[in-house]
Amino acid sequence: MTHLPPTESVPLGCPRSKTDLFLSFTLLALQGFGGVLAVVQRELVEKKRWMTREQFVEDWAVAQILPGPNVVNLSLMIGGRHFGLPGALAALAGMLAAPLVIVLLLATLYGQVAELPAAQGALRGMGAVAAGLITATGIKLIAALDKNALGLAACIGLAVATFVAIALLRWPLAWVLLGIGGSACLWAYRVLGRLEGQPA
Amino acid sequence: MNMVPSLANWVELFTHFASLSLLAVGGAITTAPDMHRYLVAEQGWLSDAQFSSSIALSQAAPGPNVLFVALLGWNVGLNAGGGPAAGAVAWGLALLGVLVTMLAIMLPSSVLTYTATRWAHRNRELRAVRAFKTGMAPIVIALLVATGWLLSAAHNQPARDWPLWALTVVTALLVWRTRLHMLWLIGAGALLGALGWV
Question: For chain B, how many structural domains are there in total?
Answer without folding.
Answer: 2
